[in-house]
Specification:
Mean pLDDT of chain A: 90
Helix content of chain A: over 70%
CATH topology of chain A: MetI-like fold
Strand content of chain B: 35-45%
Largest sheet of chain A: none
CATH topology of the largest domain in chain B: Rossmann fold
Oligomer: heterodimer
Structural class of chain B: alpha+beta
Shape of chain A: globular
Largest interface: A-B, 20 and 25 residues
Number of helices of chain B: 9
Number of helices of chain A: 11
CATH architecture of chain A: Orthogonal Bundle
């Protein structure tokens, strides 16, 4: 027990990287998640079931498959890879790749959470706002967004937690490069493959549990204060 | 206000068409449920797009399918008070009230929030969350919110039907006061004849998605006598009474009415069924009824086997309902002098 929770610099880096990836993925995905949920709840598009299917696909596909599809799409010989390459943007085997993988895998969870909240909004309230002189954007920011605040928060929490645990898609798209793309789950994976690495793996597991729990508690607290308003 | 409407809308199986123009400031849209009242409200407010036609309000084109004009709801300056108040649940009463006002150009703000809050008696509620309001309070806030947006026209879509009888009659004085004080044109949508009579002068009657007729509200009330049911109800607004023994005397025209019910406020609304007025040719010497009013027949109108007798009593009008045989026997004609006998308990207090 002499070094209980002894973390190597590489571990500390993995923890920071995990937090960074989870934060970035959550923040980047949130506006899109909100927009997608809005589209699914309020629009009358005939292609809605199709859009819904595409959004939910990462939820039912193995993350490895999602990662591989992303690799095909963003790779050097992929559809979007060469185009982004022209602007010197590289996705695969970079931090951006880890963020993208997390964002895509967590996206359906986020949309689902926001959508449930949005469906509870009284549409007549939105109509009332319009007749009171608020334009579409005005209504979106002063009525729809505040009324789905708790749901957005729940979606962000889910996304953050899912990102902390993301493994399959990340390892395919971003690889397992210590210091660059190695997040907590990838580091744990590496320790379990190293003889005598069990103690180190356990340490990181503990960090993972504490981190996830902290996120849940924080989200509960914010949710409660939103409800009180 | 000048409202010109000529629109058509196919909504699934339901076909809606309306062609009318209005100048009356207090107008009603009357009809049973499914007659297209709400469709019309949504079309006027810009919440539902008609298939074709035009809508003009005060010389301004709000919708014109031929010219490709369709003003969005926020540009129309038509206020809506919905059946259920639909207050914004995340902000308090004050911010709800000011939501539209803040979005109104300063030049158009002709109603001051202070004055309106006073008229609607909302001051004690301002800081309260909307989820802690009663049904009647919610509807008052919703009305205030709409009025403060200073619209050119207010549409009220069954604003009272979510409330119980007593609350309804508590709200009506507020409604009347607001529309008197701030002089906003009103289009009042309802299936209740009594609400219609209290709020409007003229009505458009809709049935199955089409405009069926247009008449004075009073005319509609008289016609409804034919439909049987409740019959014609005289609505009397009476002031504060004075006690007379166990009963209450209310000033009415040049005379007084004796009622059993005390009225607690300065304005009390009573209903008197036309069937509860008994007509005598000569003064009955002794009667248990407390009100004996000398009156003159202004007009007679017949519907089926009932006759409405419009009476002028001490400067006020009343309608009595009798059967044709009585008219013949008593030789009642226009100008006949009669005694109307009404029991003190026949007046029913509303609210």
């Amino acid at each position: 027990m002499e070094s209980f929770l002894h973390l190597t610099p590489q571990d500390t880096h993995a923890i920071w990287l995990s937090i960074k990836v989870a934060c970035a993925a959550t923040l980047i995905a949130s506006p899109f998640g909100f927009a997608a949920a809005y589209l699914l709840v309020f629009s009358k598009l005939p292609a809605k079931p199709l859009i819904e299917g595409v959004i939910n696909l990462p939820l039912v596909l193995p993350p490895v498959v999602v990662g591989y599809l992303l690799l095909l799409f963003f790779g050097q010989s992929g559809t979007l890879g060469p185009f982004l390459g022209r602007f010197d943007i590289r996705i695969i085997f970079t931090l951006s790749g880890a963020v993208l993988a997390s964002a895509v895998v967590g996206f359906p969870l986020m949309v689902r959470a926001i959508r449930i909240g949005m469906e509870g909004i009284d549409r007549n309230c939105l109509q009332a706002a319009r007749t009171l002189g608020a334009g579409w954007w005005d209504t979106l920011f002063t009525i729809t967004l505040p009324l789905s605040g708790r749901a957005v928060l729940a979606g962000m929490t889910l996304m953050f937690a899912r990102s902390l645990g993301e493994f399959g898609a990340t390892i395919i798209l971003a690889g397992n490069i210590p210091g660059v793309t190695q997040t907590i789950p990838l580091a744990i994976y590496e320790y379990t493959n190293t003889p005598g690495g069990d103690r180190m793996a356990l340490n990181l597991c503990l960090v993972s549990i504490v981190l996830s729990f902290a996120v849940l508690l924080l989200s509960e607290a914010i949710g409660r204060s939103l409800k009180k308003r | 206000m000048e409202l010109e409407v000529n629109v058509e809308k196919q909504h699934g199986d339901f076909h809606f068409a309306a062609d009318f123009s209005l100048t009356e400031r207090r107008c009603g849209i009357f009809g049973p449920s499914g007659s297209g009242k709400s469709t019309l409200m949504h079309i006027l407010a810009g919440l539902l797009k008609p298939d074709q036609g035009i809508i003009k309000l005060a010389g301004q084109t709000l919708f014109d399918s031929a010219a490709g004009i369709n003003q969005p709801p926020e540009k129309r300056r038509i206020g809506v008070v919905f059946q259920h108040s639909h207050l914004f649940p995340h902000i308090n009463v004050q911010r709800n009230l000011l939501y539209g006002w803040q979005r109104t150009a300063p030049a158009e703000r002709r109603i001051s929030p202070e004055a309106l809050i006073e008229v609607l008696g909302l001051r004690p509620l301002l800081k309260r969350g909307v989820n802690r309001l009663s049904g009647g309070e919610r509807q008052r806030v919703a009305l205030g919110r709409t009025v403060l947006a200073c619209p050119q026209l207010i549409l009220m879509d069954e604003p009272l039907s979510g409330l119980d009888e007593e609350l309804k009659h508590q709200i009506i004085p507020y409604l009347k006061k607001v529309f008197q004080e701030f002089d906003i044109p009103l289009l009042f949508i309802s299936h209740s004849l009594r609400e219609m009579r209290l709020m409007t002068n003229e009505v458009l009657v809709f049935r199955q998605g089409a405009l069926e007729g247009r008449m004075l509200t009073e005319e509609l009330a008289r016609n409804s006598m034919a439909a049987g049911g409740e019959g014609y109800a005289n609505l009397l607004e009476l002031g504060r009474p004075r006690a007379v023994g166990d009963l209450w005397a209310y000033a009415w025209g040049e005379t007084e009415l004796i009622l059993t019910d005390p009225g607690e406020s300065d304005e009390n609304l009573f209903k008197l069924d036309a069937r509860d007025i008994v007509l005598f040719k000569n003064h009955p010497q002794a009667t248990s009824a407390r009100n004996l009013l000398a009156c003159k027949v202004v007009s007679l109108f017949g519907v089926n086997n009932r006759v409405g007798v419009e009476l002028l009593c001490s400067g006020k009008r009343l309608i009595a309902q009798i059967v044709p045989e009585s008219v013949r026997e008593m030789e009642i004609t226009e100008g006949s002098e009669l005694i109307a006998v009404i029991k003190a308990s026949s007046f029913r207090k509303l609210g």
